[in-house]
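User: Could you check the structure of this?
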Amino acid sequence: MLPAFAQFRVEVSGVGLTQLPIALVPFRGEESSPQKLSTIVQADLERSGQFRGVDPSGQSLDESSRPDLALWRQRTADSLVAGSVSRLADGRYDVRFRLWDVVRGQDLGGQSYTVPEADLRLAAHRIADYVYEKLTGEKGVFSTRIAYVTRASGRYTLWVADADGENAQAALASPEPIISPVWSPNGGELAYVSFESRKPVVYVHTVASGQRRLVANFRGSNSAPAWAPDGRTLAVTLSRDGGSQLYTIPSTGGEPRRLTSSSSIDTEPTYTADGSTIYFVSDRGGAPQIYKMPASGGAPVRVTFSGSYNISPAISPDGRWLAYISRVGGAFKLHVMELATGNATAITDTAADESPSFAPNGKLLVYSTQIQGREALMTTTLDGKIKARLAGKAGDIREPDWGPFQKQ
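Assistant: Sure, the predicted structure tokens are below.
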């Protein structure tokens, strides 16, 4: 059994401006299924900020039904999902669904999956991805994964979980801190910093096998790994030559190449999706601010100007948005800046936000914060209007990183 704090529930708060009303009829057979598929799909869609659920009570349909669309129009649903789940003789489950456009009276197609019991949640996330893409034109992120670290009773655990925080599997446990996990571009590996040898050292860990390799263990501190989009290079912060500076190093290990030369601390590198630019944090101006420079090195350009303390940059996949943490009057708040205009907005009312990471479709952020004195993982839309808590039951939860789209 996983410890209790690895189990999450979703609480959505806030109201978006335009949410698509959708009815998810309970799937035929799901009352005897170990997972309530329609509920998982609805929670996914609501967490995205783009949908709100319409009460389906009193109706029983499945993927082969011809629904009474006038009835659903009366209930103000714009779309409708119906399906079924049944256990096969070999113990696997047959999951089927169909999506209807209620307004236009169109059948928008459906899919079927045959999955082991352990993958029923994944099947529900794939259904949510299908519905999201059909109705918004954007790729859904519900079948992607997140990584995060918990600290509970003196032990640190690196977890890999579904994008809703459920189904967490421990990738590594240690009595010493584990920090800064970051997914490889292909979703197969995690780079992170471990203190198990009593100083910060960078490892790359293969998620499927649990095997790992040491990538950076130089004199001094080895920290803040970031993958280049080609997966062959990591940017890291090393103090091997005195002072914390940025280097690149092959993701298989090897000789680092220095990128910055300053007397200040340069850290927290992150690449843009096209690999051309690295954003990073430096106190070269006297206090931590976010800068950018060509990925091969070169003259840094300052990006953040409001506030005296800005850290933890994350760049959206389309390069439009910078998410970061800004200290505002003693509170640490998640901000989103539109890079073209430089306009930045605080999007939380919490005071201990950390570690923002974009979903691979760029529509949501995951971050950690404190709510009523307890650590929590949250997702938020970029305007801050819709937040969902993926909160654990115990232990400090921190350092989330949202993985890439899964290769089907």
